[in-house]
Amino acid sequence: MPKITTFTVVPRLPTELKALAEISDNLWWCWDPEAIELFVRLDRDLWVQSNQNPKRVLGEISQKRLERLARDESFLAHLERVHGRLSKYLRGGKWLENNPDAPEGFCVAYLSAEFGLLESISIYSGGLGILAGDYLKAASDAGMPLVGIGLLYREGYFQQYLNADGWQQERYPENVFHDMPIALVRDDANQPMIVPVDYPGRVVQARVWKCMVGRVPLYLLDTDFETNAEEDREITGQLYGGDRDMRIRQEILLGMGGIRALRALKIQPTVYHMNEGHSAFMALERIRDLMSREPLNFDQAADAVRAGSVFTTHTPVPAGNDMFEPAMVQRYFADYCARVGLSLDRLLALGRQDPHDAHEPFCMTVLALRFSVASNGVSALHGEVAREMWHRTWPGLPRHEVPITSVTNGVHLPFWISRDLAGLHDRYLGPAWVANPSDQATWNRIEEIPDAELWRTHERRRERLVNFARRRLVKQLYNRAAPDAEIEAAREALDPEALTIGFARRFATYKRSYLLLMDPERLMRILTNKERPVQILMAGKAHPADTQGKDLVRKVIHFARQPEARGHIVFIEDYDINVARYMVQGVDCWLNTPRRPFEASGTSGMKAAANGALNISIQDGWWCEAVLLGKNGWSIGKGESYTDPTEQDIVESQALYEILETEVVPMFYDRTHGGVPRDWIARMKTAIRTICPVFNSNRMLHEYATRFYVPFSCRRRDLRADGRVRSVALTAWKQQIQRCWDQVRFVNVESGPTEGLEYGSHLKVTADLFLGELTSEDVRVELYHGDVDRRQQIVEGRAQAIPCVGHLENNVYRFEGELMCDKTGRRGFQARVIPENADLSGPFECGLVTWA
């Protein structure tokens, strides 16, 4: 076969336009309205056709057009302003100055299987990736020293289109890397940087690409080039594609290859953040690396790695937590175990909730939990659900004490808020809404915006959404070869003045897209009311293998095709960042109907609320924390639990119709002089004022930094000091604790009189504890106390430590303390003992507890 020599052609920019290349190479432009407008001015039609990709626009625009722009003084002035803004932005960033407690060399490595940065970089599938993309943008704005690590997929996630029957079909267009704002990283010899990653019987080579997200670099690994065998080129072929074998290969590349890439780049993070369990193998690679460079055994290296690792779990759905059969783990990690002196059984135990259950599969979430100094869910409710899901990893602990906390997600406001609304904010709120979006005082000034001005701005966004939906609908029908009459009717679908409800999310069954359609006749009456019409825009993809999800899409399409529903309900194909942006910026209401408690967080409602849309949602995920009943949106139910899913669907669908009929629709159409809905606008302002300062990625970043990144970076630094003397000592102490813990037992627990205690009095408790080879300095004795339920169980008690007061004979120690009777009613206590060491990250790091 003849050899093909590849080469790349780039545009010849006139000298006056050279800055365009620099701007297009940094994703900062995608959240700067003036920069976006600059690229639109190049060629509006080409901008739309390129999926808003400035690299493609510059590559395809005519040379004649470039020469003309080089003589356009207005355009050149615009270019100079934008380039100046970028230069000033890149010079800024004072996170380290504002956080003097951060240790020297502070840096965060953020590993994620997907990053949703913008629509023209197709390496994301949904909420997890969008969250990761927003997080990098927030880190850039703050100037935090952070680097992203991910994979560069040839095909990314699929594009969705529907056949004539409404059944979802998938196409997988290839990413053209040279049309994306990314560049190959080169080594000191100016050759593409290559990272070797070990697989059974071979070494796979990975290239490293760099994407600048403002001030933050994102490094992406790619195996799809001629050095690798065909099967290995497919590792980065498709996001979430292939079988379980492909999944483990991708996760080895992300976790282990990602760490090797950081070493090749000479980046030394002080803390590593695993965004979901896909990257958990990074802990194993860091252990191997430490053992190769320092005289540490596996346990010592594992403790050192754990000290600088943070893990965020994102899903309460079991299918979202990757699990692998033991035989697969053995195939891929037998050589690794031999290198680090670890038995396969012990490695498998690290990924099992019950380390002794040989039938339990190896779970990436459990592996991440075991190797993290801190773990969290993505909303307060999800934290509770995660503690319930993974409590067996810490046997003996009450559910609420399982060490999985929560950091509620947030969204990057400058990226998601419409340019029209951003202009209003600039005028009335000032620049602080961008510079310090978590400042409540800034958002309180939303009341200063005149109602009529806010409403006209919102109406313009709704009109743009309707026009966008019409264009997409016409294109969809044209691609399906629909009749000309149907295509012409689509050009007038929807009403730019009607109440518009948006529903856009992954079409999984627990998201319950069908809830709105459960009573078709009632819904039709709501939609087709001539005096107060309502329209619904829906979008979302089902997983290619999810036939139930695809059937839900099909049912929506069939409902929308009924003659009386036409023009009132529209499904937009191929939900992506672009569709999401139009929808959250233009709808009046955002509908969310998951089956509680399966919505971990949900960020689309935050984006809609930031644009003044009102949420109508089940009390699940983030909405439990955000809702102010009757003030900033509507709740479907009050967070009730149901044992019968069918009954739950019926009750909550009827509640939804009731909310629409009696509250939402009347309030929207209740207009004062000038056609302004005063009550609706008051609720819009309340939503913006209460949601924006809390549910933004700036606040989320700050919370991770202050609770996890800085303190654990400092702790890791201290443990590493003086040749890791404290870290090695801690490991030895933990091994002794594990070896001796079976000896620990309570000999006796006594208390004073327990009946008729007066409020404010004290109950004295004495506990005698046999410690075997341990001493009282190795343990912490606690009284776990609280309300007692009808089963005589303590409900969400709290722990109070009691001191050691003496050493009795035969290595028995006495502990004494008093419980304050600070609450009336039936109360109870239990005595327990846990290991204690000043260098532990938390009381349950050892996973050991013994109850009296």
What does this 3D model show about the protein?
It is a single chain. This protein is an alpha/beta fold. The protein has 4 domains: 15-91, no CATH class; 95-406, Glycogen Phosphorylase B (Rossmann fold, 3-Layer(aba) Sandwich), CATH 3.40.50.2000; 448-679, 3-Layer(aba) Sandwich (Rossmann fold), CATH 3.40.50.2000; 744-851, Sandwich (Immunoglobulin-like), CATH 2.60.40. It is built from 30 helices and 28 strands. Strands 1, 2, 5, 6, 7, 8, 9, 10, 13 and 14 form a 10-stranded mixed sheet that branches. Strands 17-16-15-18-19-20 form a 6-stranded parallel sheet, with helices on both faces. It is globular and about 95 Å long.
C-alpha-based Rg, rounded: 29 Å
Helicity, as a percent range = 40-55%
| Number of distinct helices | 30
- The CATH superfamily of the largest domain is Glycogen Phosphorylase B
In total, the number of domains comes to 4
Structure class: alpha/beta
The dominant shape is globular
Quick recap:
With 852 residues, this protein is an alpha/beta fold.
List the helices and strands and how they pair.
Elements: H1 19-24, H2 33-42, H3 44-49, H4 54-60, H5 63-69, H6 73-91, H7 95-98, E1 108-111, H8 127-142, E2 146-151, E3 159-162, E4 168-171, E5 183-184, E6 194-199, E7 202-213, E8 216-222, H9 230-233, H10 244-264, E9 271-275, H11 282-293, H12 298-306, E10 309-312, E11 323-324, H13 326-340, H14 344-350, E12 362-363, H15 364-370, E13 374-377, H16 380-389, E14 405-406, H17 413-416, H18 419-428, H19 432-435, H20 440-444, H21 451-479, H22 484-490, E15 499-504, H23 520-527, E16 534-539, H24 547-560, E17 569-572, H25 577-586, E18 589-592, H26 604-610, E19 614-618, H27 623-626, E20 633-636, H28 645-669, H29 678-691, H30 697-740, E21 745-751, E22 762-770, E23 779-788, E24 794-802, E25 804-807, E26 812-820, E27 827-835, E28 850-851
Parallel strand pairs: 1-2, 1-9, 2-8, 9-10, 10-13, 13-14, 15-16, 15-18, 16-17, 18-19, 19-20
Antiparallel strand pairs: 3-4, 5-7, 6-7, 7-8, 11-12, 21-22, 22-26, 23-24, 23-27, 25-26, 27-28
